Amino acid sequence: MTPVELSRTVLHAVRCAVDEGQLSVVVPERVVVSEPGAGGCGEYATNVALQLARAAGKPPRAVAEILRPRLIAADGIEDVVVTGPGFLNFRLDRRADPLQDLVREIRGQGRRYGHGDALAGQVLTLRVPYEVRAEVVADAVVRIVATQGGRATVEHRGGRATVQHHGGRAAVEHGELVDLRPVPAPEDPAPLGPDAARWALLHPAPHDRPRITADHLVQREGNPLFRVRYAHARVRSLGRGAARLGFAAEPGPLDASEADTAVTPACRAPALQASALHTPLSDYPRILTAAATHRAPDRLARHLVTVADAVLPFLTCVLPIGEEKPSAAHRARLALAEAAGTVLAGGLSLLGIDAPEHL
């Protein structure tokens, strides 16, 4: 069970308690699940009982005890312990593999992985100056806000010219006014080409001056855009290679059997390499929500670099090497690699940047 799935499970337990009359509260839009704090236990914890206690008119521990039986009964949860003033601590079913669950979730949702309803019903009017960086940032914000159920339109200072999209439709309407005033580009980024230009304007924080240099075009590891696009292209290349070898992706255990003597020593324990991917992939929905809430596409851009840097070392063990035969472990590794590729492609598309199949 992933943190996102666990958060949904907690929300479902709250809804059930409300529907059955045990709690009289407004069900929150989302629940934060994180690592247990001091005095906690298990893999994850939440303070939802403390958040609901005042509205429920009950002590936090009483709210937690109402939710606990419903949570214990959920698939993927082995035990729930109430600690401190009312923290719910989760011990997950050790027979389940959180990374496998995460891969299945990403494969099931595709590029919509990370989309949610945190901004459902909200309409934003982004006021921007006639300046290239502000225009590009606003365009990305419109896309990112839409992933969380919101809608954003753009209004230029000095005259209303609001034309932006949501769900493929033009929209012109008022909403919460948001001034987008990133530090302007020092020069015209057009010579970099559309993709590198957008990256140069979106990757820095809004208060940082963007660098409009040829460094963004260099195909070396020192270029973050290159690493992100290269990681995506490598994943797609591995998929084509697997097809030629006659196998496809399928979530499962990543380590090969000890009895498989054809496995090279370097790839004996790819699960150790893959563990570095779990947090960046599971954090993607949270990052996407934060980028939408704070109108900060730079957060998404930097997270894509984190995902790319985590997946690139793992890719060397995806396909069989030498005399190896394709196995269930290879199918599982390919599934994880493709999940990372899906996140990279989805994130790049939200920034308006192409995710190439070949590079």
Automatic annotation (TrEMBL):
The entry's keywords: ATP-binding, Ligase, Nucleotide-binding
Descriptive protein name: arginine--tRNA ligase
**E.C. designation(s):** 6.1.1.19
Its Gene Ontology molecular function terms? Answer: arginine-tRNA ligase activity; ATP binding
What the entry lists under InterPro entries is as follows:
Arg-tRNA-ligase, Arg-tRNA-synth_N, Arg-tRNA-synth_N_sf, DALR_anticod-bd, tRNAsynth_Ia_anticodon-bd
SMART domains, per database record: Arg_tRNA_synt_N, DALR_1
The record ties this protein, via Gene3D superfamilies, to: Arginyl tRNA synthetase N-terminal domain, Isoleucyl-tRNA Synthetase, Domain 1
